[in-house]
Amino acid sequence: MSKISIISGKSSEDLAKRLSKKLKANLVKSEVRVFPDGESKITLRGNLSKRKSVVVQSIYPPVDTNLVQALSLISKAKETSSEVIAVIPYMGYARQDREFLPGEIITMKVLAKLFKGVGASKIIAVDIHSVIGLKHFTIKSKNVTAIPDLVKYFKKLSLKNPLVVSPDQGGKNRAKEFAKKFESEYIVLEKKRDKKTGKVKIKTKNSDKVTNRDLILVDDMISTGESIIKATQFLKKQKCKKVYVACTHALLMNGAEKKIRKAGVTSIVSTNTIPGKTSVVDVSNTIAKAIM
């Protein structure tokens, strides 16, 4: 029997399969039956390693269902394996990493207790929305980045004088790292929010750099796509060429993909941390290195 088992959660079946091949590990599939009241009944199909098991399960919508399934899989794996690694490619609740307003619950702190409680010995996430969230974990935790994988994909495209763009100041370091590996320049857009109306306006000191160039808008995750849409509309007015979007996690809620394309984006490129039409970049190699 293999020294390592990869347990495939329902939300990350393709990624788990790829990981098992990379690590020459035994793939254990999970069957899930959802009852009319929303409860999940999970059955594992396969033999678990006594030494090490790796549970692969992204926590994207339905977030609470996928979270409970992840915890259940870890708990079951711990019954057999002495070490259980939880690979959570997309970590739901990562935005709830601190108390912004009095009385708010820091849900990441709750998650940290839950993962430890069910027996996880290590957590691996990919481009977690806030690294601060991992500080709540008392077990080992590692955040790996998909930027090299995304850059590799974009290097294969024939882009015209490309420029990397961050849609806001918060993503500056991400854009900087992407541009460094991509060997291009980068700029950061500035968002100004009207305190009375709440409307967002975009500006940048370097808008002249945009003209007649292909652009890569880089972000960690796209949920409703509002930031990307506003950025694209602004950049199109500066007479840029094509606009591409590169992100790790494409949630694309409420018809976001259609709205983003309507705004003028040529292509949305995301990774397989969340399976979907846009997830053309594989991060299994990056995760495999973190497991080893």
Q: Can you characterise this structure?
A:
It is built from eight helices and 15 strands. It folds into two domains: 4-145 and 282-291, Rossmann fold (3-Layer(aba) Sandwich), CATH 3.40.50; 147-272, Rossmann fold (3-Layer(aba) Sandwich), CATH 3.40.50. Helix 1 (13-22) crosses helix 8 and helix 4 (147-155) packs across helix 5 (172-182). The chain is α/β, with parallel strands linked by helices and 292 residues long. The strands form three sheets. A seven-stranded mixed beta sheet has the order 3-2-1-4-5-6-7, sandwiched between helices.
Question: Notable features of this structure?
Answer:
seven-stranded mixed beta sheet; 8 helices; Rossmann fold; 292 residues; alpha/beta
Cα Rg: 20 Å
The amount of helix comes to: 25-40%
From the spread of the alpha carbons, the general shape counts as: globular
By DSSP, the count of extended strands is: 15
The computed structural class is alpha/beta
Name of the level-1 CATH class of the largest domain: Alpha Beta
Relative strand content: 25-35%
Number of domains: 2
For this structure, the CATH topology of the largest domain is: Rossmann fold
Q: In DSSP terms, counting alpha (H) and pi (I) runs of 4 or more, how many helices?
A: 8
The main sheet orders its strands as 3-2-1-4-5-6-7
Mean pLDDT: 94
- H/E order of the elements? EHEEEHEHEEHEHEEEEHEHEEH
Q: Give me the CATH architecture of the largest domain, please.
A: 3-Layer(aba) Sandwich
State the end-to-end distance: 18 Å
How many strands, what sense, and barrel or not for the largest sheet? 7 strands, mixed
Residue windows where pLDDT falls under 50 for at least 5 positions: none
